[in-house]
Design brief:
160 residues, mainly alpha
């Protein structure tokens, strides 16, 4: 299958995963950052342990699967609860931002797992060369989104 098609399907799936439950990008974007740190720290340790449990995968490599799962695990857990959007425009912008940021964090595992043709290599290299900028922009948007999240204020006599 063409790598470009895989990228588009991955973007669409990540978009839908956040758009349907209406979750805000801020919390999920920072969860992606946490997942990327977990992946960088634990993929090398978890891969031999999972292999010792009898799990064997040839294509894609097991380390690629574990790295991707570690990146996506924190936001997946937070999709089931947390702040939600009320505006459809905010939902779309937040979902697009999540999908792009997740794709950028998944570039390294995807690059290890996929065979890239010349067009795919150009797209991959463009995203990889601009990944730092995209990550900084994603984190900034996530922080702005969190600052815009309003928490309900309870009166003095409200029971909790």
């Amino acid at each position: 299958m063409n790598t470009l098609v895989i990228f588009v399907l991955l973007l669409a799936g990540l978009f839908a995963a956040v758009y349907i439950p209406k979750r805000r990008f801020g919390v999920l974007g920072l969860a992606l950052c946490a997942g990327a740190l977990l992946s960088a720290s634990w993929t090398g340790t978890l891969t031999p342990w999972v292999e010792s449990q009898g799990v064997s995968v040839v294509t894609p490599p097991l380390s690629t699967i574990i790295a991707a799962l570690l990146i996506l695990l924190p936001p997946v857990l937070l999709i089931f609860g947390g702040p939600a959007y009320s505006s459809n425009v905010q939902r779309i912008v937040g979902s697009v931002a999540f999908a792009v940021l997740a794709l950028v964090f998944l570039l390294q595992p995807l690059g290890d797992a996929l065979v890239l043709d010349p067009l795919d290599t150009q797209i991959y290299n463009f995203l990889n060369e601009n990944s730092s900028t995209l990550i900084v922009a994603g984190i900034a948007l996530a922080l702005i989104d969190i600052m815009m999240t309003r928490t309900p204020h309870h009166g003095k006599n409200a029971s909790h």
